[in-house]
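Worked example 2:
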Amino acid sequence: MYLMFCAFFLGRLPLPELIGANGEKFLSEIGFTRQMVSMGHQACGALELWNYPNWLRNLTSEDPSGRDRPDHVDLPALEVYRDRERKVPRYNEFRRRLLMIPISKWEDLTNDKEAIRVLTEVYGDRIEELDLLVGLMAEKKIKGFAISETAFFIFILMASRRLEADRFFTSYFNEETYTKKGLAWVNTTESLRDVIDRHSPGMTKKWMNSTSAFTVWDAPPQRQSWIPLYLRIPGFM
């Protein structure tokens, strides 16, 4: 993580130093504004193979008292282990349950020759044993998407179902629950940028050039278009 403030680069800060009790103390010294500006000007990592931060493969965890545990954690290995222990379906079976077409060979999953070589080394020709997490990271992306097709299916299903199942979006969506001011916030908030403006007035005006807070903040803003989204032609608007 690079620390930035007032348009000046202040230094490079290893992310492991922001973990645990010492990390919380250090973050409080840095302050919220500097944290947000620093993170806003740095792109997040792509969801693909071989892009897992190395420090998360040797993570020092803490016990309830805040002391470091002697055994370090390999987080990506732990995620695969947890999926297996919880009987999460493997990649192909997961796609079947979503009524998606399963793969029959590694070339169906990716065009990356190095990825195919490593997948063959680990799994051989046992396509059905491919772990879900590995498959999601290896799967070729739809043009313009940051996530795979399989992950996008889950996103679409879960987003709608979580809204429909959340009582705060249905039965309790009223002033009695949210208060009049709170409900006004809910009904007028369109983006993360609005949330930042509400809690830290002036931050986006001073530091954010991009249209969306999820984009790197110094990216050029999107051109304004008066054509409704559903009528726009990709690549032309």
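The chain has a mean pLDDT of 88. The chain has twelve helices and two strands.
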